[in-house]
């Protein structure tokens, strides 16, 4: 039994060392994950658009790789009995794989970010960066729309072209999954056409009636808007994963707030 003492002490030292190494790895990974999350939510996906594009799924994968798998792998492979060279190599491989996964995940998140909020007819459509090709963007008639925004989506106005040939092209493209909102050549500055959104806006009372569980949230948005309820309305926002409601001013169409609640 006494002979087991050194062996037990050595085992305890190894276990503690593994825990320490994986804990350090976890701490570093958590800091990186927090920075990534802040970048996503503050720059690319301003609230509440993150939910509208299904960002939760991407985030879970991203954090799962960065915060869970990396530190777990460190715990498994760390062995004080290994040579410094072998241990350095193993940890370097883990770090490389983790960084590669993070870069890939970030590229997916970046490409899926909301780029334009396109108002047309009676609603907004969220257009993400990966829905537009370089050729699409290059055809925009306004220079400010010939590049994808990097700091959150830009509100624009669009309407069916007057030219019959172009109108037919847009109409037929619906069958291939592409609609008017994905034609940047028809984008126009929203500020110049905000009244179109104002005319299409529905009463806030209707939004409140359709969402009895979100009355407090709606009332808070109205209170913080700086306008009376009679001076504002809402316009539906269509997005891939969650439709939302855009509050606009009735006298100018100015976007006041986006609420993550059902507009229909």
Tell me the number of helical segments per DSSP (H or I, 4 or more residues long): 9
The backbone outline, from C-alpha atoms, is elongated
Secondary structure: number of strands: 8
Q: How many domains would you count in the coordinates?
A: 3
Compute the average pLDDT. 87
How much strand content do the residues show? 5-15%
The Rg value, from CA coordinates, equals 26 Å
- How far apart are the first and last residues' alpha carbons, in Å? 74 Å
Question: Class by helix and strand content?
Answer: alpha+beta
List the helices and strands in order: HHHHEEHEHEHEHHEEE
Largest sheet: 8 strands, mixed
Helix content: 40-55%
Low-pLDDT runs of 5+ residues are none
Describe this structure in words.
The protein has 264 residues and is α+β, with helices and mostly antiparallel strands. The chain folds into 3 domains: 4-111, no CATH class; 115-191, no CATH class; 193-264, no CATH class. Helix content is 51%, strand content 15%. The chain is built from 9 helices and 8 strands. Strands 1, 2, 3, 4, 5, 6, 7 and 8 form an 8-stranded mixed β-sheet that branches. A hairpin with a 5-residue loop joins strand 6 (232-238) and strand 7 (244-249). The longest helix is centred in the first third of the chain and has 41 residues, at 4-44. The model has no long low-confidence stretch (mean pLDDT 87).
């Amino acid at each position: 039994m006494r002979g087991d003492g050194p062996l037990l002490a050595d085992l305890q030292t190894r276990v503690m060392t593994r825990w320490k190494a994986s804990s350090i790895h976890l701490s570093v990974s958590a800091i990186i994950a927090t920075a990534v999350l802040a970048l996503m939510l503050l720059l690319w996906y301003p609230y509440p658009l993150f939910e509208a594009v299904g960002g939760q799924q991407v985030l879970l994968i991203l954090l799962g790789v960065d915060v869970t798998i990396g530190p777990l792998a460190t715990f498994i492979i760390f062995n004080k009995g290994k040579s410094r060279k072998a241990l350095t190599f193993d940890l370097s491989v883990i770090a490389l794989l983790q960084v590669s996964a993070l870069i890939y995940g970030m590229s997916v998140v970046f490409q899926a970010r909301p780029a334009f909020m396109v108002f047309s007819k009676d609603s907004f459509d969220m257009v993400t960066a990966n829905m537009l090709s370089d050729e699409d963007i290059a055809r925009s008639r306004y220079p400010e729309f010939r590049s994808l925004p990097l700091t959150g989506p830009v509100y624009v106005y669009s309407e069916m072209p007057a030219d019959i040939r172009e109108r037919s092209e847009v109409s037929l493209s619906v069958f291939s999954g592409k609609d008017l909102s994905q034609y940047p050549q028809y984008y126009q500055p929203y500020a110049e056409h905000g009244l179109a959104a104002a005319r299409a806006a529905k009463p806030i009372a209707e939004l409140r009636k359709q969402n009895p569980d979100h009355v407090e949230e709606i009332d808070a948005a109205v209170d913080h808007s700086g306008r009376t309820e009679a001076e504002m309305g809402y316009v539906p926002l269509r997005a891939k994963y969650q439709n939302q409601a855009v509050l606009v001013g009735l006298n100018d169409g100015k976007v006041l707030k986006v609420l993550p609640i059902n507009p229909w």
